[in-house]
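ok here's the first one, seq then struct tokens
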Amino acid sequence: MNGLALARAAETLVGTPYRLGGRDQRLGLDCLGVLAAAMERIGCQIDLPKGYRLKIRHLDLWLPDPDRAGFISASAPFLPGDVVLLRTGPGQFHLAIADADRGWVHAHAGLRRIVRQAEMPSGTIAGHWRAKPLQKAEPWQP
């Protein structure tokens, strides 16, 4: 997976309607749906929870197996395609994806659509992942 490609794919979702638990771009997406749709657009499948409650105690429900999904744990500075999990309140979390121009794409419940904004959405960073670097193939030896 390529972080810049993920960022660009997320940017194409700006303007999509917001819908809690949404995984269909025509009907609406939530923050997990934005990540799933962006990854699908670059040819990566990811299985993220659906039908979750607004308050979640276990962070592993948000990105259950980052390694298998093609991510590694990361820290600042942020790069295009980085995914952050923000703690927005007690038991409340939100995902955002760093775009290619140092902004953020995320599902904005208040505006009822997927938006791009210059600053990271408010909250405390609870997780930060980056696309795994592509491995160079080892030379084949007979």
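and now the second one, same deal
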Amino acid sequence: MPNTDEIAFQHPSEKEFAKLLDYYGIRWEYEPRTFPLEYNEDGSVRSAFSPDFYLVEQDLYIELTTQSPRLNSQKNRKIRRLRERYPQINIKLLNRRDIRSLAIKYDFPDPTHVNYEAGHPRDRS
């Protein structure tokens, strides 16, 4: 499994989630693939999406978001687009409430206290 101390996670909640996966022995990869979603007329990628985690044995991508629900429209749009373009890809979005519930259950810091309202830099497009 990857060493969580050697990965530059984009948000503290991602590191805590990785530790949780490690605890339960779930094999994971961090941002292993970027999916092109939209192309310019010249064929270059206009919009892409890199889910946070890939759970190897479950064949499942996980995207975490600690943004407030009113700011999730762009992320939800990208996930919808990913599902349209790549119907064989399984993806699950864990939202702020889901992550907060995990934080309470597993006693790790509440990720909403370290929220980057603008989201991940790679998701801006």
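notes on #2: The chain is about 30% helix and 20% strand. Residues 73-85 form the longest helix (13 residues).
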